[in-house]
Specification:
712 residues, Nucleotidyltransferase, domain 5, 6 domains, 40% helix, elongated, disordered C terminus
Length: 712
């Protein structure tokens, strides 16, 4: 009695929850309204067994209507609320006496109609919110919730799921960017190596955001030789392009080095991003980077990564070929074959001589695209990229496979604060797959195709997936290959190796050197670009009776030694002796080792005292003044990695402005498909071979039909 509510709905919800706990259902009985204003001033909620059902006469159709069983027992339990002068509602009458048996178990209580609205229950709401945070759409959430009927019993609709998610997200309206920063603040308390940087507009809204956690930074030290960068994905309602940095781990799986949300796709934006990526990764430049053929990205790569080999995605090159070579293919019957042979040239000399032939034979002076692609040949032609390690990649497909994986977690309506949470879930899923492969490699033995010690050593050293790639090359090397000697000297023998039934023009040149160690070089350059020996090299090693796989042909990044191990040492002093100056990477290693030492000793007073004595002794030897007052007066530089938004009250944190100009991206897109994939789906006319229509609507066909109609 006397309990106050803001609205009648609050009172109904309260009484309905009360009835759920006590084993009965309720319904709205009556509302008293002012005759003048027609506004309710009193409402009554009763037990669902209140009163008796009125009996209506049978219809005049001549047959008796089938009546439902009577559920009401004349129960007097009720709760009445009235509206006070202050606009609040208060309980002025309450009766808790029932004349019927109450439901005992929650499962039976849920069958009452007032509790059957399962989307209002706390359990169902929390499940919907959790599924929504996982990136599922309302229609998908409905299927999951309805499949779990046991606790809810009544199906929910997509509209109800949407209402629950909207109610949950409403509290973050205008606060999404703040939620994003708060998320990284909380992570920084757990992960001291978390890196996060944001570029703000003058009004406090974010322009660009980049982040990477400690394990991603650790992975970059091992697998950062090749980076794939792509900007073809929208994952939030602000239409900020998501730009992940992707690499390849020791199992050949895709891994994420970091992620970014960008304002636009201009050169200065990419330059800002690459500079912070380099700073985050201890100024350790990647050996190679694979991107789209985008001028803005290319200029930024040239400025920030001047010594990194830049390769264009092969898919985008093929897409442009489909668009720009069509007139030449229609004009010259042999152009397509000549172009294909020219692009696949094995050597630079062969490529350049082929270009001279192409210029003279096909009159390419007026074809700007082919000329432009020749000028950029060092970024996409295989002959110019044989000396660079790409981990077996030629396209940005790694990045696009990551994009498709994100489709299960986010969509174009995902809120900014939810997106960073989903990003972490994606990263954890990828790492779980990596750990599964680590376990399978450690707890299984490879199946060898022979008894040769070269294959046996490869099986011992390589991870499970990489050994399967090596094994395929080994099997081909021991089956259908043959060779012929080209030249001999005291230091080197050159062979031509190929399949028996294949034209010798397609055979490969293999140089076998036998000075201080076994050294095999093949013109296919598989080892240089993949760091796995090709079948031609393995064939000659077998023919030359090499009894084991030389250690310099086993790259550590393809072995289990590169796996992530919790608590393992980061680096030893012997790893730093080659450095002439202290790099950011070395400092990170040392700091990581100190952190691991503290974590190991923090629960043991004797150990932590021992570690502290070692540090103090070092400081005394270097004549560095020790702060007697402890860490409270220490320099604030040690906290530079922590971002406390609350400590900067003069900056207003605002959500970003919804972007309207998104380069190469449709308005309602979520994942942008690869250019080659889109090109394949373009409509092609079988009559005129043109794009954009079928033969049934071909304009030229209509002109011919009209001509014959007028003629006859």
């Amino acid at each position: 009695m006397g309990k106050i509510f803001d609205t009648p709905h609050d009172a109904y919800t309260f009484y309905n929850q009360y009835s759920f706990l006590h084993g009965f259902g309720i319904r709205i009985h009556w509302a008293y309204k002012n005759k003048t204003t027609n506004e309710a001033y009193r409402k009554m909620y009763v037990c669902n067994k209140e009163g008796f059902k009125r009996l209506k006469a049978n219809s005049s159709c001549g047959y008796a209507k089938k009546r439902r069983r009577n559920l009401r027992t004349g129960c007097k339990a009720m709760l009445r609320i009235s509206k006070g002068k202050d606009g609040k509602w208060f309980v002025d009458m309450f009766n808790d006496t029932h004349n019927h048996e109450l439901s005992i178990t929650p499962i039976k209580v849920m069958k009452h109609r007032s509790h059957g609205k399962s989307h209002r229950s706390l359990a169902c709401k929390s499940l919907m919110v959790e599924l929504g945070q996982s990136g599922l759409k309302p229609s998908q959430i409905k299927k999951v919730v309805n499949a779990m009927k046991a606790p809810f019993d009544i199906d929910v609709t997509s509209k109800q799921c949407m209402d629950v998610l909207s109610e949950q997200r409403r509290q973050y309206k205008g606060k999404e960017f703040y939620g994003l920063i708060k998320h990284f603040q909380d992570k920084a308390l757990i992960d001291v190596n978390q890196y996060f940087v944001v570029d703000l507009f003058a009004d406090g809204s974010p322009r660009n955001i980049f982040w990477a956690d400690g394990r991603s930074r650790d992975a970059y030290t091992k697998f950062g030789d090749v980076v794939v960068f792509d900007v073809t994905y929208m994952t939030n309602k602000f239409k900020m392009p998501f730009s992940p940095f992707v690499g390849v781990n020791h199992h050949g799986q895709s891994i994420l080095f970091g992620g970014a949300l960008l304002e636009n796709e201009k050169e200065e934006t990419f330059q800002w991003l690459f500079e912070h990526f380099l700073k985050c990764m201890f100024n350790k430049y990647p050996s190679a980077i694979i991107t789209d053929q985008d001028k803005s990205i290319g200029n930024a790569v040239k400025k920030v990564f001047p010594n990194t080999r830049h390769r264009y995605c092969a898919w985008h090159i093929k897409k442009h070929e489909l668009e720009h070579l069509r007139p030449l293919v229609a004009r010259y019957s042999d152009f397509q074959e000549s172009y294909r042979q020219w692009v696949k040239s094995d050597t630079i000399e062969e490529f350049e001589s082929g270009w001279e032939v192409m210029l003279g034979k096909y009159n390419l002076e007026n074809n700007c695209w082919v000329i432009n692609m020749y000028d950029q040949r060092k970024h996409w032609v295989k002959a110019y990229l044989k000396d660079v390690f790409f981990a077996g990649m030629t396209t940005s497909g790694r990045s696009e496979s990551i994009h498709s994986f994100f489709d299960g977690f986010v969509n174009s309506k995902t809120m900014l604060n939810e997106f960073v949470v989903q990003y972490d879930k994606v990263v954890e899923s990828r790492r779980a797959v990596e750990e599964d492969e680590d376990f399978k490699t450690m707890n299984s033995k490879p199946i060898l195709s022979s008894v040769h010690p070269i294959e046996a050593k490869a099986g011992e050293c390589y991870t499970r997936m990489i050994f399967e790639i090596f094994k395929k090359e080994w099997i081909e090397a021991t089956q259908n290959l043959t060779h012929e000697t080209v030249s001999k000297s005291t230091e080197e023998i050159k062979y031509r190796v190929g399949q028996v039934n294949v034209d010798k023009a397609h055979w490969r040149f293999v140089s076998y050197r036998f000075m201080n160690q076994v050294d095999v070089i093949c013109s296919c350059a598989k080892f240089e670009t993949y760091d796995i020996l090709c079948k031609h090299s393995l064939y000659m090693m077998k023919k030359r009776n090499v009894q084991t796989l030389p250690d310099h042909y086993i790259l550590p990044r393809w072995t289990l030694d590169a796996r992530f191990r919790v608590g393992a040492r980061s680096v030893g002093l012997e790893d730093m002796n080659t450095e002439t100056e202290v790099s950011a990477l070395t400092l990170w290693y040392v700091r990581s080792n100190c952190t691991k030492a503290i974590e190991h000793a923090k629960n043991f007073p004797s150990k932590i005292k021992k570690f502290n004595n070692l540090v103090v002794k070092f400081l005394e030897e270097e004549m560095i003044q020790i702060n007697p007052n402890g860490p409270q007066n220490a320099s604030q530089d040690s906290c530079m990695g922590t971002f406390q938004v609350d400590m900067v009250p003069q900056i207003s944190i605002r959500d970003p402005i919804v972007l309207t100009n998104t380069k190469g991206r449709p308005k309602n897109a979520s994942r942008i498909k690869s250019s080659l994939e889109v090109a394949k789906k373009k409509r092609t006319c079988s009559h005129c071979k043109g794009l954009g229509h079928y033969a049934t609507s071909c304009p030229s066909k209509k002109v011919i039909s009209l001509f014959f109609f007028l003629l006859f």
